[in-house]
Design goal:
36% of the residues lie in helices and 17% in strands. The chain has helices spanning 22-30, 75-86, 103-114, 133-140, 156-179, 212-223, 236-242, 257-263, 273-281, 284-292, 318-331, 367-378, 387-394, 398-402; strands at residues 10-16, 48-54, 58-64, 91-97, 119-124, 146-148, 194-198, 227-231, 249-252, 270-272, 302-306, 338-342, 356-359, 384-386. β2 (48-54) and β3 form a beta hairpin. α11 (318-331) runs parallel beside α13 (387-394). The longest helix is centred in the middle third of the chain and has 24 residues, at 156-179. The two termini are 38 Å apart.
Length: 409
């Protein structure tokens, strides 16, 4: 659990005004001094992330944000970083105090409601001012999940009660989402089915290990009782010949799709890791429609290539080198097409200027984060697709690789 990627953890955003006790609350529930605590407003200047095993929920990430009412010289930068967390958070935890409710708290609750995210209101500093019946009733009309607490000092047994109550509330308000958890391949395989993974081992492959999407796909198949066979693309054709039965599903790296598609019989279902993640983390229909927009690009258009992770780009980097090259070759537009590349959690506010967004496979993002990015583009009328969809479109095999997932382009 300690090594669980952040993209697979429940993301819990902690929001509120400056000096309301957000960092103290994080320190209390984690039983650690994660964030600096001070009576001086604006102590938290950036988003503080704390990943931990939070039993019984499992692996989580707490996101401690700057005060939404910050008026310091850095307020603009802090506000942008806090706002960016809105798209990440699976749960909104809004801190306030007795009878302190105004535009900032209302705005945070409206954000949670608009994003259909569970909302927990924590009334802090109850040791200084007890919660009145009137205020308690007002909060109950906003959300059924209200926690009264005091983060400062106190008997450990009282602190433990607060922590356990918070865990109970989290479990209740996230239970529905957990029940709707998506899978990568287990619903695509029959009982005891065979999954064949084609994994290129080239200069771009990490030395001595497989990448996260490959490992996640294997684990999902094994959890369903399926069998997994892994081969390099150079041995794929030979491996198919020696199998006593054909695989129920073949999954390959998007960059090898042209070769693997040519070597795979038409009655064997074939897809790519990136296509699986399009379904697992995003909106499959929307991303498939977005791929078709590649053929409609024209001179003067701008294309955004968005990467969720930060890494050193090699000479043949998929997002920064290969896809831009293939895009220019396919469209024949040359320098009449502008290509912008954003890495990490950067995402441009001027989305309406783009004719297309080509996003990475989002293995480093949560589903909520990826869906937020898709909506940001679609709401501006901008088609969006991902690396795997685009590569399959360039190679003329998009319809084939999305067919196993019952999607048509």
């Amino acid at each position: 659990m300690e090594n669980t990627p952040k993209s697979l953890r429940l993301q819990i955003g902690i929001f509120g005004r400056t000096n309301v006790g957000k960092s103290s609350f994080l320190n209390l529930v984690t039983s650690q001094d994660v964030s600096i605590v001070s009576s001086m407003p604006g102590t938290t200047t950036d988003v503080v992330e704390k990943a931990m095993e939070f039993r019984p929920l499992g692996p989580v990430v707490f996101l401690d944000t700057a005060g939404v009412d910050d008026e310091s010289a850095l307020a603009g930068d802090r506000a942008r970083r806090t706002t960016a967390v809105f798209g990440r958070a699976d749960v909104f935890v809004v801190l306030t105090e007795e009878d302190r409710w105004g535009e900032y708290e209302a705005m945070l609750c409206d954000e949670a409601l608009a994003r259909q995210v569970p909302l927990i209101i924590v009334v802090n500093k109850t040791d200084l001012k007890a919660l009145t019946l009137g205020f308690r009733g007002r909060l109950a009309n906003i959300t059924p999940h209200v926690l009264e607490c005091s983060c400062a000092g106190g008997d450990w047994s009282i602190r433990e009660t607060i922590i356990n109550t918070f865990k109970d509330i989290l479990t209740r308000c996230t239970g529905e989402e957990a029940a709707m958890q998506r899978h990568l391949v287990r619903d695509l395989l029959p009982p005891g089915g065979l999954l064949l993974l084609v994994v290129p081992i080239d200069s771009g492959a990490p030395k001595g290990r497989l990448i996260l999407p490959q490992v996640q796909t294997m684990r999902d198949a094994l959890d369903s009782g399926g069998a997994v066979m892994v081969v390099r693309n150079s041995e794929y054709a030979t491996s198919l010949e020696v199998l006593s039965k054909r695989p129920d599903l073949v999954v390959c790296d998007s960059q090898a799709i042209k070769q693997v598609a040519a070597e795979t019989p038409l009655d064997v279902r074939l897809t790519t890791f990136s296509i699986l993640f399009a379904r697992f983390k995003g909106d499959m229909d929307e991303l498939a429609r977005g791929a078709a927009a590649i053929g409609r690009l024209k001179a003067g258009d701008k294309v955004l290539i968005a990467e969720a992770c930060t890494h050193h780009a090699g000479d043949d980097d998929i997002g920064r080198v290969k896809i831009p090259r293939l895009l220019l070759e396919y469209t024949g537009l040359g320098d009449r097409l502008t290509i912008d590349i954003f890495g990490g959690r950067d995402y441009p506010a001027n989305m309406q200027e783009y004719a297309l967004v080509i996003h990475c496979g989002s293995c480093m993002l949560t589903r909520r984060e990826m869906m937020s990015r898709i909506r940001a583009a679609v709401n501006k009328g901008v088609p969006v697709t991902n690396y795997g969809m685009a590569l399959s479109y360039f190679q003329g095999v998009l319809d084939r690789v999305i067919e196993p997932l019952n999607i048509t382009s």
